[in-house]
Records
---
Amino acid sequence: MLARDFKRLLLVVVPVVVLFCTIVKFYEHAPIVPSKVNEWISDRPDSSQGKGSAESDHEQEAEVPINLGHPESPSEKSSEDGSPTAADGPPPRPPLSNSSNPLDIQVSHQEVFSVSTPDRKYFSIDFAGPLNGMNPNIIPHPTLANTWIVVAQLVRSAEEQTVYFTELVCNAAFQAGVLRCLAPPTALPVAPTQGNNCNGDLAFFGLNVGPHDARVLYGPESPYIVYGSNSQFTCFGQFIQDFRQLVDWEAQETGPRDFLVGTELQRPLPWGAIEKNWFPFWDPAGQIYVHYDVAPKRVFARAQADGSVGINLAVLTEAEDDKCLARYMPKADKSLESVHQASNSLKITLCRRSDASCVPNKDNTFIFTIWQHKTFYNFHGVYEPYVMLFQQEAPFAMHAVSKRPLWIHGRQQHLDLLTSDMFYVTSIAWKSADLRYHGFLDDELFIGFGIEDKASGAIDVTAEELMSGLGLCSEA
């Protein structure tokens, strides 16, 4: 009896042991597979790391040096600063946002809320047809009430391989809680440019046809479009044009008639291979300047009607600006993080229009813009926007910077992936058709942003709420 029971036990135990040993041997060799997959994804030219495509505004940064190209191949060694390369496998998993306390948004960020939506969340932009846009711009229509002009980059599917790029344009109004095009959008007739300065790893940029990542904005009197295209000075540059030349603009305008055709803007030396995200600003006399970089140093210069510019004026305030940036700008890991410009500029007087004693002057009126701190961990970009104010008159010294990044109400955290929605701010504009460049604290404005490189959204907030989280440079 005992012998028979022992034999039965062996018949059960032996197969279990064999199966266990097989599983152990399998897992001892299994890690090679995901490692190779990660290497392949990292090295793909069209991966979301964005080193081999000009499709999106975040795929080539203005701060990238002249020799930028595709990601390092898996066979290359770590960079000089010890940061991981593709050969090291995926980078470390990030926090949910660029902060030390990502779970509590009220602590880590300055959350802003819509003034018009019932749930106070951002609203979507619906392009009313088969075409879709990202990285949107919104400006008031010059003659139609409760109507805005929307311009956005055409979104293409991953399967579409083309060198043609398009900015979509439509008139839009609020319907059922979204900003919806009143008719399917059309292509903005921006003329393509030619350039023969894209070589080596950047040769594919030389095939580009059409504008990239436009910024549509109001100056003190006239509307403009700034966009990326092939350059005569570097590989990829920035152009400006009077926006009224590209759309059916029926309003009677008395503003300056400059930049009637696409005009390439220049910059103080040195040039980057891929120049992006420049924004114009104006002093009280209406003179135009161009702001090129906010980090690692500010760079801006006075511009002329032919696109030429003067010297870098930022050297006049560099010492004080550096102190301000050192206090409020997040410290960026060079390998997986960067800081760069994002939106156009507007002018604001820091008192309420409704206050009879509110009189704009050089002490209470400033120019503001939004820049972003980008991280790229686990092949997913996260952008944290900050507001920056600087003086409206020369020498245009910095005045204030957000103490904490903005969190647009409705943006989601993804706890399972240790990340959050990628909102990429592209534009700011006063919401009212009565306003152009200059507003007050009680005026409402739009913040437009792309969502995950495939959709567009925006939020309307009061300027006072946007300015409530600023830290003064004088406190630095």
---
Amino acid sequence: MQSFDRIYRSTILGVAGNKTVENLVRSRAWSVAQRFVAGEQLADAVRAVEELERRGIHGILDLLGEMVTSEQEANTFTENILAIFDAMEGRELPIYVSIKLSQIGQDITLPGGENLGLRNARRILARARALNAFVALDMEDHPRVDITLEQFRTLATEFPGTVGTVLQAYLYRTEADRKALDDLKPNLRIVKGAYLEPETVAYPSKTDVDMNYRRLVYAHLKAGNYTCVASHDERIIEDVKLFAEKSGIPRSQFEFQLLYGIRRDLQQKLADEGYTVRAYIPYGRDWYAYFSRRIAERPANVSFVLRGMLKG
């Protein structure tokens, strides 16, 4: 039997996939989307980073866009991501960028068999390494997990200390995936997961997802690996803090990551307590898919959006 959370997410994401709905939301809801998205331009995102840094919170820059099938478009996305490093260079701020391999050509095989996404990722990571920056490879829907982990392994070997990736707690396979990466001593962001996945591959129950989330975080910490705890769930956050304290795990081995515009009070509280905190700052014109997933996460977000659209 499906849980309410799963039925709700399925309904919202299903409706969001309707082109008429997308056009309506795009035309009416940008003012609302700006709660979750820093802006459409890189300059907007850089300003958001600077504002957060003044409060003791670091930023993760993410140019929105995914599932690119054109070589030209993938190369354009790559150039725009490289522009992030140009914009941040010399500002004396930590540079942390999140990318989706599907936006830079993961689905495109070049003549000779080279994967365009891997080639473009190498360009991005070479620039990041030169600036002592860090790049996280976002995880997408479940059919892409194998190739993303394969490409992460390749890149982590070539660019040690410069690249990490993301694991999703709602997938049954993730516990085994995490353990299989231990030889790399990887920097991993642990998330619950925001895509609509079938019950054949993902836990349908929020309770099971939460339990698996804790297992993954605790196991990664116990293995001595750097762990990015990406959650707004205060119970999980408090449990992680307590686990780390009881296990003698230093605060330098983990951080809390939260989404831009969500639970600003919690972000500030954690930073004031001395924890490393980063806010995931998305920007760009391709904001609709990201925005839809944020709406699908909580029923309260729907009423928030509707109120904003009626005002618009």
---
Amino acid sequence: MSSIKAFRELQNEVTEWRRYLHENPELGYEEHNTARFVAEKLASFGINHIETGIAETGIVALIQGEGGDGPTIGLRADMDALPILENSNKPWSSTIPGKMHGCGHDGHTAMLLGAAKYLAKTRNFKGSVALIFQPAEEAGIGGHRMVQEGIMDRFSISKVYGMHCTPGMEIGKFGICPGLALASVDEFDIFVKGRGGHAAYPQRIIDPIVIAAQIIVGLQCVVSRNTDPLESLVVSVTQLRAGEGYNSIPEHAQISGTVRALSPTLRDFAQRQISESANGIARAFGGGIDFKYHRLEPVTVNHPEETSLAIKAARDIVGHDAVTDRLKPTMGAEDFAYMLEARPGAYIYIGNGSTADVHNPAFDFNDEAIPYGIGYWVKLVETSMLAA
């Protein structure tokens, strides 16, 4: 196990960067100040190859090692905040009402900047490191757009890695899930068509609210009675909109929700089954539907060789027992999945200690995790390039 003393020496400075970013959150594709801050720091480290404006506000910077020719490894951090009103009561709380770094992206960005400063100074590796600062992760589109704009080919990235803070996991610990790690996520809208009228005369109307209620109940069986209980699929209705008055039955109702799955087959099944179920129920009541299904992030899959390298790098920093290498998949989603579809790589979790959960108004990234995150990135680069 390598000492993290060198990375602790960066902690105070990187903490200042992290807290500045926390005070100044920006939503997806609005990260102009964040991108400017990142680019200025990278330039101050002596990094000459910095490209901005990728996927609007994204950045990719290259550091060339001094160990000779070799591949390029990509390290990714997300930069965007969430539309949440913060109540963490920290001195560095968000200065922008209704926006906060509620998922630790300020910490992710700061840790990668810390690793960039260290790697730009030491350059103890072969090949190159591509530092990927991604916008719009929370919208599920920033990673996809960076891939579509060709960053993997343009920067000759052969492998790519991501990291996310995890409340409830102790500081100084890491965890990773080999293979299937996170679910795909999709969104659906069901527009129920009825015939409106006076609430006093229900026999004259086709009530879209009643139809919507029956559809919602019916959707509960998509998982419970149509899929293998040992497979992972979640169908959640999250919105229901209908009507404006007390004495009028509306013409339309709208049901919206999400689908999360751990396999493409289940994803396809859910799309088909939701449409067929909703259409059948609506027709039985004399109504109809329009159905829209929006595919977002695919399943996040960690690749075997890269997962092994990630585990080794983490254990080089914190020791064998502080790295859990058999985490179970979760039904959360990550647009880093698009990068893992484009190139082999791995996505690891770093402990954030006993804090509020992510997407909670009281959440704050734990600055005590900073030296471990920096150390992981550095050891990952050095380990990967030795294995190249």
---
Amino acid sequence: MVKAIQVGLGHWGFSWTKEVIPKVPNIEMVGYVDSNPDAVKRVQDELGVDEKSCFLSLEEAVQAVRADLAICTLRTEAHYPVVKRCLELGLNVIVEKPFASTVAQAKELVALAKASGRVLMVSQNYRFQSAPIAAAELISARKFGAVNLVSIDFRRHAPTQGYRYWDMPDPLLADMSIHHFDLMRMVLGDEPKRVSCRTWNPEASPFGYHPIGVATLEFERGTIVSYRGSWMSSGPVTPWSGEWTMDCSEGEIIWSSRDHFMGKSGPDRLSLRALDKEAVPVALAPVQYTDRTGTLASIAKVLESGVIPARFSSGEDNLHSLALVQATITSAARGGEWVDIAEIMQ
């Protein structure tokens, strides 16, 4: 069993407490931390958590209980200082994305984890679904040869779907597209080389910053990705992972994942279309622990076994996804000019 402390019990953190952590059997909760007494009281009143396991500071919790893992579920700007302190106190860490506000901060956290011999994982939950795992395996096996062009569309209409973070900077690229960028890297098994991106905010939008964007991404092995994302789309809603068409030398791999809309949930989907043939649906292997339960179960297994599995989203690996976000934001600020990932990673 992995003994864990959760840090951050706000709106999203409470969702982890209630809906995610109880579903991972080899996690034993020994502490809950939040500086807001109301948040602490909520987990006590609504979930029956013993008040002896609740603390108003991380230091207080670490002094009172023995833990192996910190589950950091706070607002983004708190990630860097809290994760840093957890690592300094000797804890392994799983943290929500993005795991730092800047690449420089992220590099510091990765170096600290390495120096202290601790595991730092970023909860890239979209990786733990049937379709992207199958797509990654098909690409790795070169099912249809080399990948030439990948087209991805993400469409949602935030004002009618319960979105509430209207003043968040870069609501598309930093909050949503980071999932898609991370999946690009995982599924292609490749790293981005440079990007060009434009973003904008349409009339009558409630967003304070740009909710729509288009980007062209060039990967190291030559694959070009065409990406279109919108929080203000009036078109058909896509699954949360978007709609993917991967055009290869001998056929296409077409897939979508996390198909949740208005309280309804559909399965992941993947089809293969050989050159000049009709698309054929593929039966997907089930994933034991999906989404956020998948990320938590993954780090628990790593801590128990000491073995790092394929496609594990370590902090070091996730530096490249964070850099991709920063590169697209930088490109958009420069009017769409090409930005090299190497510039961002310096």
